[in-house]
DNA sequence: TGCAAGTCAATACC
DNA sequence: GGTATTGACTTGCA
């Protein structure tokens, strides 16, 4: 029942040669929603007023979109109109609340998205272009009835800090553990092997060979794509662009601030490494520890705000009106309002989000120290092959 | 078959 | 009650 499965039946019109360019006529009224008025993830409303092209075709033909500008605008509209992510996700995108939250908070750059991954952004863009988008969602909200019975819930495994640390340590040593290693880990941590496997899948972003990278990076962790996305956003923020910082703090900081040591991704993809270099965040100067990508990068990134032009816009996907780099797609998906605020920097945070007050700074320092401590122990442990010798 | 990307959905958090 | 996080799962591809 994936949204993408039936979305091919949705049609669009007047897009030949200029995909997504036409202003949509309107979404169908809620009463015409095939789902019967109660949208579910997987049954997004039909695309507004286009016929002849499936959503996949539209996505394939779409020029590059400024995913960050789109999500920023969507967040604004939802907030301004008191519309929730769940309603928006289920009605417009065919996604669940959590997915919407993730997309809105950590949009990946267009060029890093697969066709499937681009689809929600195309839907968002079309929704933004619909002059009646808000009122229709409001109607949906009014019509929405409380759902039926709660399904039997499956217990969720919640890994403890020690387990996470041990897994990260194991990952650092062996991103692709053998079944035997997985079993050993599962046994030692008292977890199911499937949990360990899933954790590695989730944490792993790519099978990087650390020797392929700057030697200075090889003490840092690999990460899954969602962590890498956070770094991308932080880079935007650091570059002085319209970053998530403008709405209350970097998600990646959230990851590292949590003291869990997430987001410690030293083996970034080529693009991000370029970006970091472009930002003047000296990799060699911060080699070997995750602190440079957690707490401390923030201040350094902030210090780099003065040179946003150095940012590789093609890599970051930040290019747009007002940026120093051109972007092909924005002529069609113009969101100049959002992009024009690119002067926002990490120091320009609205009061709605976690402010960078002295108290926060102290907290950060405290957590940075804690993180360094963890790193120290991990580095120490890294020299020991036998997991039983790991010290946590 | 293994991996990466994308998403779901339980639950923590505010 | 809405949003963020994250373990689990699905899908598509090489």
TrEMBL record:
Q: Record's family?
A: Belongs to the CUT homeobox family.
Compositional bias of kind Basic and acidic residues: 283-294
Q: Residue spans with biased composition (Low complexity)?
A: 339-352
Q: What species does this protein belong to?
A: Goodea atripinnis
> Where, per UniProt, does this protein localize?
Nucleus
Q: Which residues of the full protein are shown?
A: 601 to 992 of 992
Residue ranges annotated for the Homeobox domain, each copy included: 150-204
The CUT domain extends over 56-143
Query: Could you identify this protein by its name?
Result: DNA-binding protein SATB
């Amino acid at each position: 029942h994936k949204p993408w499965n039936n979305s091919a039946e949705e049609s669009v019109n007047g897009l030949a040669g200029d995909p997504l360019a036409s202003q949509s006529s309107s979404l169908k009224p809620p009463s015409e929603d095939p789902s019967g008025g109660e949208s579910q993830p997987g049954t997004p409303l039909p695309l507004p007023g286009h016929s002849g092209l499936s959503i996949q075709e539209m996505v394939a033909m779409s020029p590059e979109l400024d995913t960050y500008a789109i999500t920023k605008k969507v967040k604004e509209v939802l907030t301004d109109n008191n519309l929730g992510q769940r309603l928006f996700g289920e009605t417009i995108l065919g996604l669940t609340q959590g997915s919407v939250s993730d997309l809105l908070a950590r949009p990946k750059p267009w060029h890093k998205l697969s066709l499937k991954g681009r689809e929600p952004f195309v839907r968002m863009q079309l929704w933004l272009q619909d002059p009646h988008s808000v009122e229709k969602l409001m109607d949906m909200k009014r019509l929405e009835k409380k759902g039926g019975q709660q399904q039997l819930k499956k217990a969720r495994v919640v890994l403890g800090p020690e387990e996470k640390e041990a897994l990260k340590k194991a990952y650092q040593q062996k991103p692709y553990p053998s079944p035997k290693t997985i079993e050993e880990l599962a046994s030692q941590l008292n977890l199911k092997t499937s949990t360990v496997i899933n954790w590695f899948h989730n944490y792993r972003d790519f099978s990087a060979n650390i020797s392929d990278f700057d030697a200075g990076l090889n003490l840092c962790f690999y990460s899954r794509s969602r962590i890498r996305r956070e770094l991308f956003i932080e880079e935007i923020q650091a570059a002085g662009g319209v970053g998530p910082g403008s709405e209350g703090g970097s998600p990646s900081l959230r990851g590292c601030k949590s003291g869990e040591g997430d987001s410690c991704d030293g083996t970034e993809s080529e693009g991000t490494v370029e970006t970091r270099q472009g930002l003047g965040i000296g990799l060699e100067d911060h080699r070997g520890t995750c602190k440079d990508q957690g707490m401390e990068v923030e201040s350094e990134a902030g210090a780099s705000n003065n040179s946003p032009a150095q940012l590789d816009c093609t890599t970051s996907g930040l290019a747009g009106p007002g940026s120093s780099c051109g972007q092909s797609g924005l002529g069609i998906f113009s969101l100049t309002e959002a992009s024009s605020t690119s002067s926002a920097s990490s120091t320009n945070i609205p009061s709605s989000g976690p402010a960078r007050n002295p108290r926060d700074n102290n907290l950060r320092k405290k957590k940075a120290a804690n993180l360094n401590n963890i790193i120290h122990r991990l580095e120490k442990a890294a020299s020991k092959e036998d997991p039983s010798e790991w010290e946590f």
